[in-house]
Amino acid sequence: MSYETVIGIETHVELKTASKMFCGCPVDFGAEPNTNVCPVCLGLPGALPVPNERAIEWTVALGLALGCRVAERSLFHRKNYFYADLPKNYQISQFDLPLCIGGHLDIETEAGARRIGITRVHLEEDTGKSTHLGESGRIHAAEAALLDFNRSGIPLMEVVSEPDIRSPEEARAYAHELLAIILALGISDARLEEGSVRLDTNVSVRPEGSTALGTKVEVKNLNSLRSLQRTLDFELERQVGILESGGRIAQETRHWDERAERTEPGRSKEESSDYRYFPEPDLVPLAISAEAQERIRASLPELPAQRRSRYLDLGLDNRSARLVAEGENYGDTFDAAVAAGADAKAAANWLTGEVTAHLRRAHMALGDSPLVGGHLAELHAMVKGGELSSTAAKDVLTGVLDGEGTPRQVAEKRDLKQISDASALEAAVDEAIAADPETLDRLRRGDQKIVGFLMGRVMGATGGKADPQKVREIIQERASG
What we know:
Elements: E1 3-14, H1 53-65, E2 69-70, E3 73-74, E4 77-80, E5 90-93, E6 100-101, E7 104-109, E8 112-125, E9 129-133, E10 144-148, E11 155-161, H2 168-185, E12 197-207, E13 217-222, H3 225-244, E14 252-257, E15 262-268, E16 278-279, E17 286-287, H4 290-298, H5 304-313, H6 318-326, H7 330-339, H8 344-362, H9 373-384, H10 390-401, H11 407-413, H12 422-434, H13 438-444, H14 449-461, H15 468-479
Parallel strand pairs: 13-14
Antiparallel strand pairs: 1-11, 1-12, 2-6, 3-17, 4-5, 4-16, 6-8, 7-8, 8-11, 9-10, 12-13, 14-15
Helix pairs in contact: 2-3, 5-6, 6-8, 7-8, 7-9, 8-10, 9-10, 10-11, 12-14, 12-15, 13-14, 14-15
């Protein structure tokens, strides 16, 4: 029997606001454990929450970017459950009246474009962080657990997709595109490896052609796109194997074990009724006016899909357009370079090649480097004008990234400027020929190997700074008499 995959993804995004969702404690991911806390985020008796306006606006911004309908009236609820990292024994979240409803996200796959529906975008507070001491890092094998409540109360936005995803590859493409939009909006650093974005996936299989949904399994807290795809690959194989052997899929929550490369059972899956939702009595309903929506809509930046389309129109290939559009600060740097006169393809090649390699070696983000768009434009002008060879341009770019100054300053400081003066190059060519007079006769008889031989001599004599194109032209002139 052939089976169809049905996947939905819940994406939890920590917003990078200055303070927490319902109190004034700072959001500082490097702070000592349990130092950014107060009676509100610790759930002490009598402490009252106050909503973070910026977090609400950013959630609405993402909803609008995804084509959602913003609710005229939204409400916070209490989601009741008991766990050590939840100090109030309930989480302030949203239930049946979320901030944003509906919407979609378009993705590109090898099979073509796909549209994935968005069920909702809502806002809640994060829980504390539990660290289980033991070899596996899991609670069932832990010798002890450490609790850090610095994360408790940080604004946590959740994006819930429709079960429209049909393969692990589509799931990865969906998550990639959503993260690119979040980064473009500037509402989160979106670092999966650091936990500021966490992915939960609901996956089931059903016979091909069936419209009924199979029993879903939730795999929680995936922290990379690679883990997401590998989790789904494994889970699909596991579920199909159970069905083909006559078994039944258990509705449960599972966890991905990176070392064992498999999912492991966690707990039975709860239904919404298990959380006993009821309206948060300490918070009034939210009303997002039409004027507020239009103000937020007008503030939206150019989104990754729009940028990619524009860059393709500038002549970039698909890969370069995607890397430039989605790299943090890459698009702004590229646009500034082109506006200052840089060739679009050259600027993109430098950004996705030498610049990216240097930043990785230095463990640095582009925004933290001294490179700006004007530097790429100046570098392009120097190469185009014959002041720099393409090889020397790479060395100059390295100097700029190391903070040595502008391209022209680096070129002069490192003595990398190319010799383009015709009289100086003619003298160097004539000197190379004079050192071995037979070369001229062989050149005039059509021996093209001599061209490379003479060019090598000239480049050596000039320390590699001679303009190779002009040197070749002068050699050809000497060959023609």
